[in-house]
Predict the 3D structure of the following.
Amino acid sequence: EFPHAVVHCAAFPTIEACQADPARAQVLNAEVPKKLAQLCFHLGAKLVHLSTDTVFDGVAGSYQHTDHPKPLNLYGETKAAAEVEVLRYGREHAAVLRTSPIIGNSVSGDRGLHERLFVSWKEGRPTSLFTDEIRQPVSLSNLADAAVELCERPNLSGVYHWAGLEPLSRYDMGVKVAEHFGLDPEKLIRAAQRSDVPQLGPRPRDLSLQLHPLAGKLRTPAQPFADQLNELRIPRGTETWYEQATGRKVVRLLEKGIDF
């Protein structure tokens, strides 16, 4: 294959997974992007590499794209190392896109934030969510639009930030998800702080991002959280529980990639 552009999304994607298997984290998060950057350089293809807000330590918040990474954990370290390698081989034709937790509907039905919450709630397990961990969630479709537009814009290379418009605590996200679907957050969500779970190790406090200059260069607009919520659907397997909990009827449409 001789592509004009490559969007690299694959990763070992959580702090906990990387701590459990450091060797695999190093390969998937650092070595694979390096190889892709070398291949794209050889082919003259644009590379859009998805990175993460976790390259920062979360002390200051409101990070600009020019701020120097200072990761607190192995996940952030491997992703920061990948940024260096991608730009080493593709400074003129590669874009590193740091982003935040992704809100959306997954094919498996258990990868999105709201999907994981629904699974817990269906099983009768209220969810503990941190009030002191700030992120800036982005919708799957909006992030995809931004990545595709970067593929179409050869003049946009280097490091950029892309996320939603609103920094929110994980607790606030959960409350807004519950309220959006007509559920009672007081019954389903418990407020927690990072100090309540010391075995998790160091976690960044505030990973909010400044979206300029990219927000001023793309046609794709950054979204408020309310618009992201409107894209969500009831996860498969939780329909009966949801109908019993809310009295609302779930209408399931056929989905490409699942039903056909």
Q: What stands out?
A: The chain has a mean pLDDT of 93.
